[in-house]
Amino acid sequence: MQDEYRTVARPGVHETEINRSRFLCALAPAATEREAQDFIASVRKEHADATHNCWAYVIGADASVQKASDDGEPGGTAGVPMLQMLLRRDVRYAVAVVTRYYGGVKLGAGGLIRAYGGAVGEALDVLGTITRRRFRLATVTVDHQRAGKVQNDLRATGREVRDVRYGQEVTIEIGLPDADVAAFRGWLADVTAGTAGLELGGEAYGDA
Predict the structure, then answer these.
(1) Does residue 185 contact residue 116 with C-beta atoms inside 8 Å?
(2) Hey, which end of the chain has fewer CB within 10 Å, N or C?
(3) Three-class SS of residue 113?
């Protein structure tokens, strides 16, 4: 698994003009292929009068799903350079649609490749990306007497407290980088005099 990846910070559109053609790059985060396809469909509907609506998306932290479309532009001049720009920037779980309104001047294959790839690069610069890092889900079980101090100490040391449940004991869910597990186990034993339990769960990604 990838230790980290970048994704689009927020949905948005960035417009650029090249030789009188308008290029509008719409970017959005997409957790699944279905979300990416729905976003493409919504942009195509909004710009049904455009000359082309070319698109690319990458799903999976390891980029396991990669798809692109030239939407009528010469083969390999639109969707592929868009996809390559996403991959080069390490962007995952994201979809890009570049809408072109033709301005009457032909750009040639090289010009199209630069225009479509560049539109995605510029949009990423303007809208920004966020880094998401892999971590291990972990559950701390502690008695009620020590729970408040443990929660405060966790937050003070920058640990993300994801959930707290109160029963016979208090269960605190946190996220830990794999490399920190051994040190955290020692720290927890120290602050709770060895009374707390620690159970490791699966892996997930969170904001770095």
Answers:
(1) no
(2) N
(3) helix
